[in-house]
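thought: fold this chain, then report.
action: predict
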Amino acid sequence: MGAITGREVIVALKKASSWRTAVACGAGDGLLITSESLGPLTKESSPDNSAGQAFITQRPNVFQPPISGTLAMNGRFVGADLILALAMGNVSTTQPDATNAPNTYKHTISIAPNIEGIMATIALLKKTDKVWEIPTAKIHGFELAGEVGGIVTLTANVLGNKYDLASEVNTPTTMNDVTVLDKENIILFNEEAVFRMNAQSAVALADTDKIYPRSFRLTFTRNMDTDTREAGHIDISEPVESDFPNATLELTFDKYNIDSFLDAIVSETHQKLDIYLKGNLIENNYHYELRINCPNVKVLSGEAPVGGPGKIGHTVSLQLDACDTAPDGMNDTAPFQAIVQNTRTTL
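observation:
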């Protein structure tokens, strides 16, 4: 059978429930990616280095290293939601107005202490007769980034148990059933984007608290311990977290015309911040939306280097931490919360 190009690659991702047990991907499980770097496809061997032989003649395979890497994609209101949910862990889905907006659903995604038991099957058709299946994988972090006038991108950090190139669950035939739930509603950093920030102890965020960055980069990481081996298996068991979850936000500004961040560094004043990205209309004044709420923001650093006679840019690095009590206008105490409004009924 023949080779295919990146234009023809089929990628699918579906929630699974039991480590090492793949689930069948099909309609609605397709994922449009811009790149992937998941590997390696290899096995560790141990040489038979016994004395009494001139050369080593045997290297039996004893362990299959985990699959790690990234899946990069253009953010979509239906698609990014699942990546965020798998990485963050807790999801609550409601209908804001079941009567007047029966096709609109709001998914409130918050950071769970851990993602034990939360996993997905990933399948990639890279050749007309070959599916690269990762039976179970953790999405253990992501990077959400955007610049004014462009598409918001999402890069997922992946850690899987192994590659199965002879799966009977996801085959070249079944991959033909894979479809993308919604190709159209891409997340844009356009004129509808709103960023707001004020002191954590202040009143709820309002229009007077708007800030105007040129770009942003939200990074969330769960460090995983992959040295989890057990008898009866050549691959890793379900990995566990080796450190606290960590979240940071970087904002860049074209003009150095705001001192709020530098003042916060000097005074050590904690802030709260939210990001709002608005998409197309769903129905009856309900739009596709992504909101990020950050209840406890510490400004780590700020810089405004002079690079010549032109404008002076401004970059700030923010640490997103948890808090004991949610500030005014927010209802979560974890480092950040994501709220996605779209047409998907459940995550």
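thought: worth noting. The CA atoms of residues 139 and 158 lie 5 Å apart.
final: tokens above.
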